[in-house]
Structure formats: structure tokens, C-alpha cells
Amino acid sequence: MSKLIQYELAKIVRTHIESTLVPGYFQPDLTCACAVSSWTLWRLLKKQGVNANFISGRHIGNIYLSYEKEIDEGRAVDISHLGDGHCWVEVDNEIIDITATQFDKCDSVCIVKSDERKRKYYIPQQSNLRAIREINQTWPLEQKPQTYKKYLRRLLIAS
């Protein structure tokens, strides 16, 4: 599947989340919707035969910027435990983040290539089923993918 089609599919998922779940569940910038949105995109990409990975970890954009000089100079700075819990999808070592709008002023779909500086904002911790299991067991009910399956089923079946 081409990168353009992956991007368009990501836009479709974001639009569906915005129209279906934002009124009543999430904020317009999709704060707290990363697990639900990324899980949906991951399922759709896998259904299309794409070797995609659902990733849970931390987004440390603002924290990274605070320590950027020390990190670039190679000084030991442990910031892996800081930042916000976050989820995204990775395909071919590129991040597809459809909820990055909660952190940055960016397009509705943020693609971060492996060599981009912004890649350092993402600290992966778990992937795929292990990540989903941990999210469904430990995250707040309103942020768990399993909470919204009935709302997302139509999109998942239609693709």
C-alpha cells in the first residue's frame, strides 16, 4: 500500500473519530483519544495487509525541548519516564500520529520520518497486542479502545 493511501486512510480514521466520538467523548484536538484513534488506524492498516505496529509509550516534545542541548551534547539525561502517555502507529519505521494536534500545531495527520528530529519526541514502550492489553487494563475507561468498539465497528467493517 502506498504512503499516500496510508495517509488518506489515516485522514479517514481521524475524520470518523472527530464526527463520531468528539461530540461527547473527546476534545476537538483529540486529547486523550490517541489509543482509540491509533488502535482503529492500526486495525484498518493490518486489514489492508500493511505491516503496521500499534505503539504505546510517551510523547516528550516539550520536555525534550527543555533538555535538547544536554541531549545533543551526549550528556546523560533520563527523560524516558517524563511526558504524556501516548499511542501512535508505525509503518516502515515512520510514525503516523493522528492525534499529535494535542501537542503541536500540525496537520490532522502527522507523519514523522525516521530521520526527523521530531522522532526524538516519541519514546516507545510497548507494541501491538501487549500495548493494547496494558491500555485496556490500566488506562481510564474513556481512553480505552474496547470502550468504543461498537462506534468504530462500522468503519472497520466498511474497509
Q: Roughly what is the average pLDDT, rounded to an integer?
A: 85
| SS elements, strand count | 5
- Would you list the SSEs in sequence order as H and E? HHEHEEEEHH
Largest sheet, spatial ordering of strands: 4-3-2-1-5
Spans of 5+ residues with little confidence (pLDDT < 50)?
A: none
* Integer count of domains: 1
Biggest pleated sheet: 5 strands, antiparallel
Distance between the termini: 14 Å
Helix/strand structural class: alpha+beta
Give the number of helices: 5
Radius of gyration: 15 Å
Helix content: 40-55%
Shape: globular
Our estimate of the beta-strand percent is 15-25%
Description of the molecule:
The chain contains 5 helices and 5 strands. 41% of the residues lie in helices and 18% in strands. The chain has helices at residues 3-20, 34-47, 61-72, 128-138, 149-158; strands at 52-59, 84-91, 94-97, 110-112, 122-127. The chain has one domain (3-158). It is α+β, with helices and mostly antiparallel strands and 159 residues long. The mean pLDDT is 85. Strands 4-3-2-1-5 form a 5-stranded antiparallel sheet. The longest helix has 18 residues, at 3-20. A hairpin with a 2-residue loop joins strand 2 (84-91) and strand 3.
